[in-house]
Design a protein that fits this description.
About 45% of the residues lie in helices and about 20% in strands. The chain has helices spanning about 1-25, 40-60, 80-90, 105-115, 145-160, 170-185, 205-215, 225-240, 255-260, 280-295, 300-320, 325-330, 375-380, and strands spanning about 25-30, 65-75, 95-100, 120, 135-140, 165-170, 190-200, 220, 245, 270, 335-340, 340-345, 345, 350-355, 355-360, 365-370. The strands form 4 sheets. A 7-stranded mixed sheet has the order 7-6-8-9-10-15-16, with helices on both faces. The protein has a 5-stranded parallel sheet with strand order 2-1-3-4-5, with helices on both faces.
């Protein structure tokens, strides 16, 4: 009997120790497109998230507990994202989740996290319906309408373009950006002489660009991802088009610079990463990114860093892993010193308020050109 009692005591000690060990780790879920056409962005997203975890753990973790990132590949699939969401909640028992993915999978997963009251922070997916899933969903990247409007402001107010041609990618991302761009550009006196739609993955932009060349615009705005954007830039230069070329965060990738080559020089984009930012957090991120991953950082990585970091700040502020307390802390965060800038906070919909950066490609590198701070442009809708 004494032996059985001793054995039971040892087992109980082991079990309690195991529980204690588990509680010393805070698990944050993360998904991104690590395979498929968006794998380059997925890798950047994962790199940024891992750097956030590294920095948090070097600073002592969250309230003395180490942070562990639980990573899955969604392959830009809504079905896969839904399965991942359920696994993170039901099997991995994560405290909160970050999306390092595109709008389609993020939009599919958001209602599940809302239903189970799991704090969900979106890095850079732009679709407006994502945060409308409910009050447990927050976005540190720009709403497409906001970034599109910032592009319209840059075109009409900063670049003084009067005649503008728009190339719209035929998906939620492209259409939402173009809508915001056109509204703001027209409001500031510019004329939209064309709005041509192309398919995701389009390889030959010359038919569209030939039509645009005949219209002789001052500026071309394109809403493609890095591949479509790079081909647009190269083919526009090949056709002798002299109009200014303005893109958006979809262009913000080392792959854009690699594919476009010298044709990228002079291109401007709206984004949320200022490569010339002098703040310590931004300089640390950019130097560590290059050191560890042997490539230049992009807005996808920076936004994913900020999403993980913001969720961690909320958990720290809540002093708890209780979902409702974390959600409340997220809603009340102010003046977050992120890699992508000073995040002022979130509105009632969970949309971020921060300046929009403008970068220009000079000698095959993104460099500072300007910033959009006008509240009428960058303030997201609250309903």
């Amino acid at each position: 009997m004494k032996f059985r009692g001793l054995l039971l005591g040892v087992l109980l000690t082991f079990i309690v120790s195991g529980v204690s060990f588990a509680q010393d780790v805070i698990k944050i879920g993360f998904f991104a497109p690590l395979t498929g056409f968006a794998a380059a962005d997925g890798a950047s997203a994962k790199h940024g998230a891992m750097l956030a975890v590294e920095k948090l753990n070097k600073m002592g973790g969250i309230n003395g507990k180490k942070v562990k990132l639980v990573v899955y590949d969604d392959a830009v699939s809504s079905q896969q994202a839904v399965a991942i969401a359920r696994k993170l909640i039901q099997e991995d028992k994560v405290v909160g989740v970050v999306s390092g993915s595109y709008s389609t999978p993020t939009r599919a997963a958001a209602p599940i996290f809302q239903r189970y009251h799991k704090p969900f922070v979106v890095a850079y997916a732009t679709h407006p319906d994502i945060t409308k899933a409910g009050n447990f969903v927050f976005r540190v990247g720009f709403l497409a309408k906001v970034e599109g409007a910032a592009g319209g402001y840059v075109a009409a107010k900063m670049l003084k373009a009067k005649k503008i041609a728009v190339l719209t990618m035929d998906n939620d991302f492209g259409k939402s950006l173009s809508k915001g761009f056109i509204n703001e550009a027209q409001k500031n006196g510019a004329k939209i002489v064309a709005n041509l739609t192309f398919s995701l993955g389009e390889k030959d932009m010359t038919p569209f660009l030939t039509k645009i060349k005949a219209l002789n615009p001052d500026l071309i705005y394109c809403t493609g991802y890095y591949s479509e954007g790079a081909l647009t830039v190269k083919q526009a230069k090949g056709l002798g088009i002299n109009a200014a070329l303005l893109g958006q965060e979809g262009f913000d990738s080392p792959m854009f610079l690699k594919i476009a080559g010298k044709a990228a020089d002079g291109v401007l984009i709206t984004t949320d990463l200022n490569r010339n930012d002098k703040r310590e957090i931004a300089k640390w991120f950019m130097s560590q990114y290059v050191k560890q991953y042997k490539m230049q950082p992009d807005m996808v990585g920076a936004s994913s860093f900020d999403a993980v970091y913001t969720l961690a700040l909320a958990i720290k502020k809540a002093k708890s892993t209780n979902a409702n307390k974390i959600r409340k802390a997220l809603a009340n965060l102010k003046d977050i010193n992120g890699v992508t800038g000073q995040i002022k906070g979130f509105n009632k919909l969970g949309e971020v308020l921060k300046p929009v950066q403008v970068q220009k490609v000079v000698d095959s590198k993104f460099t500072y050109y300007g910033v959009v701070t006008d509240p009428s442009v960058i303030t997201p809708p609250s309903k």
